[in-house]
Amino acid sequence: MISGFATADGTQKFLQNSGINSLNFNKFENLFLSNVGIGTYLGDPDNKTDELVKNAVKQSILSGVNVIDTAINYRSQKAERSVGKAVSELINEKKITRDQIFISSKNGYLTNDGDIPEDLIQYVVRELGKPGIIREGDINSDYNHCMTPAYLSDQLDRSLKNLNLECIDLMYLHNGIESQIKDISKEEFLEKLKSVFKLYEQKRTEGKIKFYGMATWECFRVTKENPQYLSLEDIVEMAKEIGGDNHGFKFIQLPFNMSYDQALLAKNQTVENKSVSVLESAVTLGIGVFTSVPFMQGRLLSPGTMPEFNDLKPSLRALQFIRSSPGVLAPLVGQKTSEHVLENLEIMNILPITSDDFLSLVKKLTT
After folding, report:
1. Which of 58, 71, 198, 312 makes the best surface tag, with the fewest CB within 10 Å?
2. 186-206 pLDDT, tens per residue?
3. Model pLDDT, residue 300
4. Can you tell me the mean pLDDT for 115-140?
5. From the CB of residue 226, how many other CB atoms can be counted at a distance below 10 Å?
6. Is the pLDDT confidence value at 365 over 90?
7. Is it the case that residue 4 has pLDDT exceeding 90?
8. Residue 301 has what pLDDT?
9. Statement: residue 322 has pLDDT above 90
10. Stated pTM of the model
11. Bridge partners, residue 28, by sequence
């Protein structure tokens, strides 16, 4: 198991060694994080995809990306294992050190094991039901999500093993309210969330995670009337009640691109009695935001789909808009082939749009 975690000194050294302009890194929680990260969501749970993902992660890191995002359910645990192999190989090759890279994963969804030939139900009964990790009533009605402390603790240990790490930099609760709200009230969900935060604070004390957060789809983008809505300010207050001023709830993840623009444009959050967007809210509250689906799984890359600016090809235009948005740490881009890595990471040779120019661009695009 690889020891350590991302540090200020390590990530600063990564930035210096990368040869990339420091404006293409964001400093958050004293860490220097590349303003583009690699995601590992899509792909079949087979050995061929394992190799592609492993090589893409290695190539991305060597191209100046030190933010890697995965989840235990991605490719039935094989995405985490591919990330673990990539990181282990780079460390063994002395290309990087553990303290230079920031690795996040997610727990909550049920998953089988892509390396074991059995279906989800068989796996869950054998691995989780019989040992008593999951009990009757723990799983949601869609039979795909569980957020009890016993389950999440078990999943964290599996993630650590898959990644070959002693400590994960960031562990998200994965689509919590989105998966649970059909079965329980908002009040019941918030009580469950408190127990999750208590668990994560305990895991920080044990040295198994450095930070925790919420990887979401709807809850921070929808209107207050929506049952899935959550106030980021309230969630931060909950974390303070549980973990004190030095609590570990420091990150959220949500969809954001030029089609899913609510994070930037919807004034659906309230902070200090002001109506603001979730990105503005995050800045005020000291929460880092990573974003998902930068290309809408390729749909935004079709000719004429996105407004044109800066004479950039569609993939770079999409990444440029997202990473230049105030409050965004990095879009997480899924890439498996060497060609896609090369194409997407051309963005690391381009500076983000300045704040003034970004405001002018948004005005132009929204009028």
Report:
1. 198
2. 999 999 999 999 999 999 999
3. 86
4. 95
5. 13
6. no
7. yes
8. 87
9. yes
10. 0.97
11. 31
One-letter-per-residue 3-state SS of the chain: CECCCCCHHHHHHHHHHHCCCHHHEEEECCEEEECCEEECCCCCCCHHHHHHHHHHHHHHHHCCCCEEECCCCHHHHHHHHHHHHHHHHHHHCCCCCHHHCEEEEEECECCCCCCCCCCHHHHHHHHHHCCCCCCCCCCCCCCCECCCHHHHHHHHHHHHHHHCECCEEEEEEECHHHHHCCCCCHHHHHHHHHHHHHHHHHHHHCCCEEEEEEECCCCCCCCCCCCCCCCHHHHHHHHHHHHCCCCCEEEEEEECCCCCCHHHHCCCEEECCEEECHHHHHHHHCCEEEEECCCCCCHHHCCCCCCCCCCCCHHHHHHHHHHHCCCEEEEEEECCCHHHHHHHHHHHHCCCCCHHHHHHHHHHHHC
* CA neighbor of 14 nearest in space, from 52, 65, 77: 65
Q: Which domains does the chain have, with CATH numbers?
A: 8-366 (3.20.20.100)
